[in-house]
Amino acid sequence: MNKVSYLTEEGRKKLQAELENLSGPVRHELSVRLRSAIQMGDLSENADYKQAKEDQGFLEGRIQELIQILGNVVIIQENDAPKDTVQIGSKVTIQETGEDKETYLLVGPQEADPAKGRISYSSPIGEALLDHKVGEIVTANTPAGPINFKILEIL
Question: Percent of the chain scored above 90 by pLDDT?
């Protein structure tokens, strides 16, 4: 059974576009490169051929990864997330003692981008937030050590 992937609709569209690009134009361009390299002759000493084969392996791996991700998607409905406890799709404002408030949207790992306010529900902070309520102080066990912060608001 495929693992469930949590994506926003925007994230699903981006991954779908990437899949279409990789399986269409990029795959075609790579096949042209391979054919050209094969026509050069001795494959054992052909750097272009070796590079094209390596690129093909990475390309096919990414295509398979995207097919798996998109094959079992649960769309995160930002506005439908419960407001009483933090869940995937919740937008939550937190504050570490002595630090500024920060607001994050809990998304799946494929869309995580902390600089843009999106953290994965499976990250240390995301895991610490799940199923907690406004006013609670939670501890995230990060690689740099434990961090305590208070949940100020679930938007």
Answer: 77
Q: Domain containing 132 — which CATH number? A: 3.10.50.30
Instruction: Report the distance separating Cα 108 and Cα 76, nearest Å.
Output: 9
* 3-state helix vs strand vs coil in the chain, percent to 5: 50, 25, 25
Q: DSSP assignment, residue 22?
A: I
- C-alpha span between 153 and 144 (Å, rounded): 25
Residue 129 neighbours by CB under 8 Å, 6+ apart: 86, 90, 92, 94, 106, 138, 140, 151
Residue 109 CA from chain centroid, whole number = 4
Q: What's the pLDDT score for residue 97?
A: 87
What pLDDT is attached to residue 7? 93
Q: Report whether pLDDT(81) > 70.
A: no
Q: What angle separates helix 27-39 from helix 47-71, to the nearest 10 degrees?
A: 160
Phi and psi at 5, nearest 5°, equal -110, 125
| Overall domain count for the chain | 2
